[in-house]
Amino acid sequence: MINIERNPWREMVNHAQAAYPNECCGAMIGSVDGDNKTVTCALALDNVSQGSQRARYELRPEDLLRADREARAQKLDLIGIYHSHPDCGAYFSETDLKNSCPWYSFVVLSIQNGKFDHANSWLPNAEQTQAEKEELTWPES
Amino acid sequence: MARILIPTALRQFAEKHDNVELPGATVGDVLHALTTRFPDLKKNLYSDEGKLRSFVNVYLNDEDIRYINKESSPVTDSDVLSIVPSIAGGKHA
Predict the structure, then answer these.
(1) ipTM value of the model?
(2) Number of domains chain B contains
(3) I need a surface site. Which of A125, B15, B16, B64 has the fewest CB within 10 A?
(4) Could you tell me if residue B93 is inside a domain?
(5) pTM, whole model, 2 decimals?
């Protein structure tokens, strides 16, 4: 399961609402204890998708490299990626799946009419053929 | 020996190391040494055809190896290799 602490959760929701009607994306940093992950820091990253950002996001690998270095410097781990789905459910779409990687939790925030509605976390497989739903908790959940 | 940084999720396949020093004259040599020492990492990094998976990028210090000499890029003892995925997505297929 993955638990997101209050401050990073607030930053993620604020980021997703500010980016509306576009999709936002970012990295989640924290600690891992067996199957339990705790997010203590959220890092907003640029959506560099060249297409319509209302329905697409793309991370720069260099930004992810920087996030990993920041996590290591704090003796923490890069444990997940978040992005938003404006006016759409927090499912893991075919596009999400085909451009995912199995090393991270993928938290999707549904933003409806500019406001946070719900969220889910997903664990895609290495073949990018399916994603398993992961238990997700945050302060108000 | 060059140092290679192991992403969090892959450490379970690398005896929990977050980085290891491995011998090799090229990036390909170091990656080969990595998957030889930790065979369970191979399926995470390589496809069944033996190619790096589509979402796997390898950085030699701050440079993506695709823009230098790919897996033939030479490495020295002071170099650091990082494994970084490509990630994108979006709400509609």
Answers:
(1) 0.91
(2) 1
(3) B16
(4) no
(5) 0.93
